[in-house]
Amino acid sequence: MNYIIYMKSSVIKFFRDYCREKYSVRVRKIPVAIPVTCPNINGTKGRGGCIYCFRGSKPEHIDPGTSLREQIRGEIERARKRYGRKTLFFLYFQSYTNTYLPLEKLKEYYDSVLDFPEIVGLDVGTRPDCAPDHVLDLLRSYSEMGYEVWIELGLQTANFETLKRINRKHGLSDLVDAVIRAKERELKVCVHTIIGLPGEGREDFLETAKLLSALCIDGVKIHPIYVMRNTPLARLYEEGGFRPLSIEEYTEEASLFLEYIHPETVVHRLTAEAKPPHLLAPDYCTYERKLEVIRLIEEKLKRRKSRQGARAERRGLLSVKGTGGHRGKGVEIKG
Ligand code: SF4
């Protein structure tokens, strides 16, 4: 069996280290795809999606035509062969908007965790404007059963002008609202961010990091902007209207970004992976160079004698159960 040697990072709180501490064994995410779309693609919020969107971030090896339980069984088998029989799992609904279906349908999909005793948690990726109270209540029902439940909210940037420019079709207020209501239900919140979006610079990246710390989020995903063929971003890139960050620039910006992220925030991802036939640029956003990118970020932090959270401030309001009077979207406010 081909075991991978485990080494804990001294400067970044990675998801794998967090899980190792909590569960004492290796924990892997099982990415799955269900037949779902996105309101920014089907015309409800917008058409065509975010300017960088490529097939809703679906991993290429996953066939959404395969039944969900078959996808799960296949991934568990593969991971246990590679990492050992004791490996535990999170079921990760990754592609498109995984809360954008009728409640009964969502329950049917999320309920598949119940069939696999080796699954300890549920991780659901969605947009901040697609987290209604009834879906958050459904997610809370799994944490009440003992599962660890994460909701992943795509924000990408705290800059509202950029949100418009990249055609996200949601605002910053949607993110703040979703975070507050998810935390009221004691769900763990992970926010996706992108470094290097068109028109942005360091000030924007760091403002995003500061916002996340102020919101006391539990997890973060950070990756460089990358250009996939046949997207509006690819056209902008080919016309010379935008240049992605070099590996040197990205790792520098990501290391600074991490200094403003609270040390207890779990880092779920630090780079992006795409396959070269579809990937236009930059060339380091591949599976093969993933460890190189992470190593460079860690080295930069160590060289500065710094670490994740070295400059973070957390106000603490949302880390307390309940937020004292916030009523949430869709709840009637009386008087
Ligand atoms: S929210 Fe996600 S799935 Fe929807 S258009 Fe944007 S990147 Fe694509």
Indicate the CATH class.
Answer: Alpha Beta
Let me know the number of strands: 9
Outline the low-pLDDT stretches: 320-335
- Provide the structure class: alpha/beta
Commentary on this structure:
This protein is α/β, with parallel strands linked by helices and 335 residues long. The protein has one domain: Aldolase class I (TIM Barrel, Alpha-Beta Barrel), CATH 3.20.20.70. It contains ten helices and nine strands. The strands form two sheets. Strands 1-2-3-4-5-6-8 form a seven-stranded parallel sheet, with helices on both faces. Strands 7-9 form a two-stranded antiparallel sheet. Helix 4 links the parallel strand 3 and strand 4 (148-156). Helix 7 runs parallel beside helix 9 (247-259) and helix 9 crosses helix 10 (290-303). The radius of gyration is 19 Å and the shape is globular. Mean pLDDT is 91; it is low at 320-335. Bound molecules: iron/sulfur cluster. Iron/sulfur cluster is lined by residues 38, 40-41, 49-50, 53, 56, 96-97, 127, 154.
Any descriptors?
globular, alpha/beta, disordered C terminus, seven-stranded parallel sheet, 335 residues, two-stranded antiparallel ribbon
What is this entry, summarized?
By secondary structure, this protein is of the alpha/beta class. The protein has ten helices and nine strands. The chain has one domain: TIM Barrel (Alpha-Beta Barrel).
